[in-house]
């Protein structure tokens, strides 16, 4: 569609006649003006044709096929142009009559006219069919910002592929992506895939056991305290604010908690209700534990640590109901379930600003999370300034259209051709120190993560640029000092993300000098913030089969065969060396389980932190038990419950990756049982909604406990802060509940080990009922109390899509979070408030929820017998 053809018809015709050659003329090289018009008016339509099983794919593994239709509203014959586009997954087949598609690197592909191309004819599409490895289940897997360019011209983003924002919901949309219509071909891979499309009817059945209640709201605290008792006494009046009295603590120990109260309307005042914070002996209170007593005469807090005192104030804030000037009289004795209660944020793929990180820290502190695992480097970006290595951020911090990568990295993940975009950027040293101090003030540890030896393309390309700079200056020793590339290595490989140059050569001494330089400079930033870097996450995951043809590695392997012929795994060798380097500096090495599993246990330091990111339906239980039994600290990072970049619900209009889980809503996170992993085989299903089994082998040794759990946001499909918040919240609050509080319904491990599946029945009916009742209370508290606070603080969260059903002409609606405002409309009419079953005439009915403060709408769903039956509900 030529969107500009309306009132400006005559003007456009004049412009076209001026700058475009007629179809009768010979093709000519494109000019900047023509390129600008091409990008402004090229219509792109992206359609998912089908997900296919391996036997129907050119690659021999499961694949999907997409169709791109490119159309101009006018004849266009200039040549020499290219269209660059980001498309996730490995390309295995292309079908196009007169257009060529080739891989550049990573997800970046380039589309060019073939020798047979004779130009665009007005309104006649040119079609390209692509087959790529993997699956494609949502309309948010495609990436925006295709761009057109030509030699010597300034690249232009193709307007039709820009991401738009719905003004009513804040949801980003990709207008070039066609709506899914076929649940069998587009939403499933094989007949064995039983994933239900999350229609209004499906959600209504899922939510049937939930009901709205406010009986418990006044005394509800998230996360749930270890124990508390309501007092038979008058409530505390806070209409005049709070008056803080410090006995052994300083105001700065709890200042962020006080600021949160102030932001929610509870001021500090000499006339306010007294709040006495007493520092008690450590023997009375474990680390982070506290007691809290609220009476009409005042609030008393006891703790041995500033963190415990801050958490007590967080509980006061959790009791707060906006618009109510009283707090219930009660006493609490509380302490955390896990030492490690974390959130992982990927700022490498797409950048997140300092202010957004600090906002996340605020919310983590409010819900008593205490570690921010900050993923600061990957193939697509290096995000923190390192003194003495300016190329890391000058080049590695930006993506733009520079195929030589002299000034920036290649565009990836739909970043577009310009350096000037919010997905680019880095933290200066001062920024990072600010983040460290902000975290420390909130009793949160920053766990820095720099992924190596794979996932390291940003660092590799930056150090190659440094090499070229010093070689041009005639200083070869400096050029090679931190080089990560063996230029004589002829190894051909492709990483999981389709790079052929993203792995540090682990056989070069300069690679270890580089890592030590980064560690030392980062440690210095911690020291400048008044802190000590206690842990460092070295990554270690998904390292492809590089180095085989590297002369440096061949020499190292020959040497190692003489001393250690049983272990020639170079990836494991790298991790062992880095882990021991860190240990020598009194820094605990952390890494992903697959990289750590390449090491020899006897070669590793005494203390190691392993993050388990395997799937439960695969071998997560076995790896967890193995690493626990080795004496390592284990943090559960299970993707099917804690990767918040996965969709909230199984619906094509839900943002997110889908390789690990088709849906992770707050109820699933709430039902997580981190201290009995195999039990999930009784209550969860695998990626395709099929039953699976878990054998509790090797049996976890008595007394071994995981260090903790964490949520994760990987940022490949997250391009702004609003998107990040609506993927994180409210799931992070459910994760905090499980990290802080062990529920009575959670079963423990069987001491002798067992096998679990959908029929074993170890998770009793009574425990399931208790879990579901607990979630109903939690969900009501979220909807009626906590989300109002997020609204007041301008923190985004996903508003659930609602369930609905029409019975005998009456519309029934329910929701995952009872208490949120509900609406319906008929045949596109005015939205009406829903307060109970209502008569509806025949026609198309839409339903939706609104934010707790009623200012924002959620995504709507259709309720229509014919549409739902065909799987075509929106």
Instruction: Tell me the CATH superfamily of the largest domain.
Output: Glycosidases
Largest sheet: 8 strands, parallel, barrel
Helix content: 25-40%
Mean pLDDT comes to 93
CATH architecture of the largest domain: Alpha-Beta Barrel
Instruction: Indicate the overall shape.
Output: globular
Separation of termini?
23 Å
CATH class of the largest domain: Alpha Beta
Multimeric status of the protein: single chain
Number of strands: 37
What would you say this structure looks like, in words?
The chain is an alpha/beta fold and 874 residues long. The protein has four domains: 9-186, Immunoglobulin-like, CATH 2.60.40; 227-334, 2-Layer Sandwich (Chitobiase, domain 2), CATH 3.30.379.10; 340-378 and 413-450 and 510-534 and 576-763, TIM Barrel (Alpha-Beta Barrel), CATH 3.20.20.80; 764-874, Immunoglobulins (Immunoglobulin-like). 27% of the residues lie in helices and 21% in strands. It has 23 helices and 37 strands. Strands 20-21-23-24-25-26-27-29 form an eight-stranded parallel beta barrel, surrounded by six helices. A hairpin with a 2-residue loop joins strand 16 (290-295) and strand 17 (298-303). Helix 5 (255-263) runs parallel beside helix 6, helix 7 (354-366) runs parallel beside helix 9 (429-441) and helix 12 runs parallel beside helix 14 (570-584). It is globular and about 85 Å long. Residues 1-26 and 865-873 have low confidence and may be disordered.
């Amino acid at each position: 569609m030529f969107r500009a053809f309306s009132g400006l018809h005559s003007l456009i015709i004049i412009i076209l006649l001026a700058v475009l050659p007629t179809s009768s003329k010979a093709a000519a090289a494109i000019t900047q003006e023509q390129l600008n018009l091409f990008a402004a008016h090229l219509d792109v339509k992206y359609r998912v044709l089908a997900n296919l099983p391996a036997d129907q794919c050119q690659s021999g593994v499961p694949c999907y096929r997409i169709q791109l239709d490119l159309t101009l509203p006018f004849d266009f014959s200039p040549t020499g142009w290219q269209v660059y586009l980001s498309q996730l997954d490995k390309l295995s087949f292309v079908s196009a009559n007169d257009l060529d598609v080739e891989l550049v690197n990573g997800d970046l592909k380039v589309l060019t006219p073939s020798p047979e191309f004779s130009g665009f004819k007005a309104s006649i599409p040119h079609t390209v069919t692509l087959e790529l490895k993997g699956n494609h289940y949502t309309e948010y897997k495609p990436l925006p910002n295709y761009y057109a360019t030509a030699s010597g011209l300034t690249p232009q983003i193709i307007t039709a592929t820009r991401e738009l924002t719905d003004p009513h919901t804040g949801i980003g949309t990709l207008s070039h992506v066609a709506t899914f219509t076929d649940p069998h071909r587009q939403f499933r891979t094989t007949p064995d895939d039983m994933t239900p499309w999350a229609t209004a009817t499906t959600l209504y059945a899922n939510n049937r056991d939930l009901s709205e209640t406010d009986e418990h709201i006044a005394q509800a605290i998230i996360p749930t305290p270890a124990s508390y008792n309501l007092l038979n006494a008058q409530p505390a009046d806070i209409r005049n604010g709070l008056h803080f009295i410090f006995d052994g603590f300083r105001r700065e120990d709890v200042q962020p908690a006080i600021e949160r109260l102030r932001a929610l309307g509870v001021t500090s005042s000499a006339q306010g209700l007294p709040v006495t914070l007493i520092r008690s002996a450590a023997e009375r209170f474990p680390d982070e534990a506290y007691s809290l007593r609220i009476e009409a005469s005042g609030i008393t807090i006891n703790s041995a640590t500033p963190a415990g005192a801050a958490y007590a104030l967080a509980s006061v804030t959790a009791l707060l109901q906006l618009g109510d000037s009283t707090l219930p009289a009660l006493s609490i004795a509380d302490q955390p379930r896990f030492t490690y209660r974390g959130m992982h944020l990927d700022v490498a793929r797409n950048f997140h600003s300092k202010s957004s990180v600090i906002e996340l820290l605020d919310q983590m502190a409010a819900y008593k999370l205490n570690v921010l695992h900050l993923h600061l480097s990957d193939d697509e970006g290096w995000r923190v300034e390192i003194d003495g290595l300016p190329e890391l951020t000058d080049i590695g911090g930006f993506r733009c259209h520079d195929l030589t990568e002299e000034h920036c990295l290649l565009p990836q993940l739909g970043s577009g051709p310009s350096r000037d975009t919010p997905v680019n950027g880095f933290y200066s040293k001062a920024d990072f120190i600010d983040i460290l101090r902000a975290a420390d003030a909130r009793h949160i540890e920053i766990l820095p993560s720099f992924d190596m030896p794979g996932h390291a393309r940003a660092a590799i390309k930056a150090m190659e640029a440094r090499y070229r700079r010093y070689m041009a200056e005639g200083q070869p020793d400096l050029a090679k000092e931190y080089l990560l590339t063996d230029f004589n290595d002829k190894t051909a490989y492709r990483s999981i993300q389709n790079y052929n140059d993203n792995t540090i050569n682990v056989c070069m001494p300069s690679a270890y000098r580089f890592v030590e330089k980064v560690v030392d400079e980062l440690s210095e930033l911690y020291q400048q913030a008044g802190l000590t870097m206690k842990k460092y996450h070295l990554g270690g995951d998904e390292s492809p089969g590089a180095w085989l043809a590297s002369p440096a590695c061949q020499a190292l392997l020959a040497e190692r065969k003489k001393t250690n012929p049983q272990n020639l795994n170079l990836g494991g060798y790298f991790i062992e060396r880095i882990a021991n380097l860190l240990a020598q500096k009194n820094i605990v090495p952390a890494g992903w389980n697959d990289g750590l599993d390449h090491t020899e246990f006897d070669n590793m330091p005494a203390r190691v932190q392993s993050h388990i990111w395997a799937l439960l339906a695969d071998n997560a239980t076995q790896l967890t038990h193995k690493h626990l039994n080795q004496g390592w600290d284990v943090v559960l990072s299970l993707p099917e419950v804690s990767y918040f970049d996965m969709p909230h619900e199984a619906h094509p209009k839900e943002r997110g990756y889908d390789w690990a889980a088709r849906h992770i809503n707050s109820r699933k996170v709430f039902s997580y049982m981190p201290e009995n992993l195999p039990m999930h085989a009784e209550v969860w299903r695998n990626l395709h909604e099929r039953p699976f089994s878990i054998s509790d082998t090797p049996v976890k040794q008595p007394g071994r406990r995981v260090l903790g759990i964490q949520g994760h946001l990987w940022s490949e499909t997250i391009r702004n802060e609003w998107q990040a918040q609506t993927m994180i919240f409210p799931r992070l609050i459910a994760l905090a509940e499980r990290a802080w509080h062990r529920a009575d319904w959670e079963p423990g491990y069987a001491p002798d080990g067992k096998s679990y599946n959908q029929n074993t029945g170890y998770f009793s009916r009574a425990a399931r009922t208790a879990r579901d009742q607990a979630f109903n209370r939690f969900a009501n508290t979220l909807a009626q109390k906590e989300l109002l606070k997020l609204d007041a603080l301008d923190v985004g969260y996903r508003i659930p899509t609602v369930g609905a059903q029409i019975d005998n002409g009456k519309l029934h609606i329910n929701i995952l979070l009872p208490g949120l405002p509900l609406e319906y409309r008929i045949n596109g009419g005015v939205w009406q408030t829903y307060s109970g079953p209502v008569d509806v005439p025949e026609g198309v009915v839409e339903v939706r929820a609104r934010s707790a403060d009623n200012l924002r709408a959620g995504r709507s769903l259709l309720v229509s017998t014919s549409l739902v039956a065909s799987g075509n509900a929106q």
